[in-house]
Records
---
Amino acid sequence: MSRSIDYGNLMHEAMRGLIRKVLDDVAERGLPGSHHFFITFDTSHPDAELADWLSDRYPGEMTVVMQHWYEKLDVGDDGFAVTLNFGDAPEPLYIPYDAIKTFVDPSVEFGLRFETQDDEDGTATPGASADILPSTPATKPMPVTDEESDASDGKPAEVVSLDSFRK
């Protein structure tokens, strides 16, 4: 048997660790300046926890925004819990790091996309690769959640395509 270094999964682990460190800092000190996050995750992940009405509305994936209103951010080794506002209804979520598909902070043009790769038997292997989004040629606009319309200034949030941040 030949042994090889699994760079894809090592990078996956490192990028998930980066997200954890960022969220740890936010849990301790709050979001600095204009930083905010778009986090897309797999709602069907076995360890993801969300209200039934949310998983029914977003059966495959959902993008949440951490910006003006969030509370009870609790960062753990395998994922994080947070309560977000969906149309004036606070809902607790638990998002495992392995369920995250994209993590974007548009205020500083930073983003990560985690992809899966099908094995020979047709099963998906999470974290086979992770791309830093500004270096990828085509990024589609992300889906929007109800939370984005609940900005503290009363104005609806704007949907932003990541392509608009490319130089």
---
Amino acid sequence: MTRINALTLDQAPAAARSALQGVENSLGFIPNAFATLAHSPAALSGYLALSQALNKNSLSPAEREIVALAASAVNGCDYCIAAHSFFGEKAGLDAGALLAARAGTLDGVAAFARAVTLSRGKVNEVQLAAAREAGLDNAKIVDVIAQVSLLTLTNYLNNVAMTDIDFPPTDN
């Protein structure tokens, strides 16, 4: 049962409405995670600004979804696993890749995202060396950390709120 309700556009604070309308225009609907985040217009605005900035980072769309899945699996966020499985499929990841991303075994990006999340950023030399050996340069390393940080916000929000999942179910 949801512990923090998702707001409708009419229920949302005035300062959050234009942001929610932008999400609706972009995705075709307002996901419950955003409608819950709208309780704090500042948090919604900050999340959207960082998300938009990170869409221009050194990671491909598929790699961003891989990071999202690895971090969300570690953090136990069923909502974000559903959402990013949906977006991961759209970015070209098949069912096996989605599962491997969640496990952190798909590639160097997944492994490093999992390591960062599990260690709360305190990766060891072996983990950092493995990321570099897998082809992650300093820019990708920083971008993986930034993506993990973005996902941690929504993971924690959805875990606390017990946000109702409104993305199509996956078998992954």
